[in-house]
Design goal:
With 279 residues, the chain is an alpha+beta fold. It contains eight helices and 13 strands. The protein starts with 7 loop residues before the first strand and ends with a strand.
């Protein structure tokens, strides 16, 4: 425990953020290829690394939106675990996010640890993965999200995140994803989806839709023409329509995890979330 006193916690440089993403890869979290760029744009000051003699040994991200913040990328190098570094850097991020309703997504086995830090379970999520058909699909209602007025996308996303993620979405649409699409009925957004290349296949998220049919059209549109299109979906366990779609596509359930908040869980329509963006 004595080594803890030598830990220096600093705001992450761009190189440090690349290291954070590499740690996520080692942990098997399957981050997207451009996650480092897109996520840091959301809150450039919210990424932290713990250094010992100038060498990073732990990390965490605490990203602020308007009212909600999210903690992620919480990792300690294996050789340095059990020395209190994780607790220190986690608390550093919590202090940085003071005053926000803080969200964390974590495996159910870790939920008691977060609950001891003041988090409350909001809902359980499920992850599905598998290879999907990448054949061509044509739908006149689907267009590039970049062609839709940004405020419309921002407002639609806020329906399911209960906060405006302005900087994050701008980065996500323009640099963080391989494809980002909207389903438009005249001037109204009825669905929004994104896909990004990751270590293993592709991550889909977010994927919001007013109906399961729209979700399926968007998902197939996102997957078309992509070689070896193995995808990952993360959505609330209560969304039975999401389960039915995943099973229709012959995806396989991998594990369940929880979403927890320090404050009240936002009032959002979980049944229209077919995949959210895991940080």
């Amino acid at each position: 425990m004595a080594e803890n006193s030598n830990l220096e916690i600093v705001s992450a440089s761009s190189d440090h953020v690349e290291w954070i993403i590499s740690m996520a890869r080692k942990e098997g979290w399957n981050p997207g290829d451009n996650d480092a760029i897109a996520f840091q744009q959301a809150d450039p000051s919210g990424y932290f690394v713990g250094l010992i003699n100038g060498k990073p040994v732990c990390c965490v991200a605490g990203v602020k939106f308007n009212h909600i913040a999210i903690i992620g990328y919480y990792v300690v190098v294996k050789e340095h675990r059990g020395q209190g570094h994780g607790i220190r850097i986690f608390q550093h991020a919590m202090n940085y996010l003071n005053g926000y309703n803080i969200r964390v997504d974590g495996l159910l086995i870790h939920a008691p640890k977060y609950q001891n830090s003041g988090f409350k379970m909001a809902h359980v999520n499920v992850r599905y993965t598998g290879a999907v058909d990448n054949s061509t699909i044509s739908c006149p209602f689907v267009c590039a999200a970049s062609s839709v007025p940004f405020d419309k996308i921002l407002q639609y996303d806020a329906r399911f995140y209960a906060d405006e993620r302005k900087h994050f979405l701008a980065g996500w649409i323009n640099t963080g994803t391989t494809d980002c699409l909207a389903y438009m009925d005249k001037d109204t957004v009825k669905g929004f989806g994104a896909i990004r290349k990751s270590v293993n296949g592709y991550r889909v998220g977010p994927l919001y839709a007013e109906t399961t049919q729209i979700a399926e059209i968007l998902l197939k549109s996102l997957c078309q023409h992509k070689s070896d299109c193995r995808i990952t979906l993360d959505f609330p366990e209560t969304n039975n329509h999401g389960k039915a779609l995943a099973e229709k596509l012959k995806l396989v359930e991998v594990f369940k995890f929880g979403t927890l908040y320090t404050g009240e869980a936002p009032n959002v329509d979980l049944l229209k979330i077919y995949s959210f963006t895991c940080h």
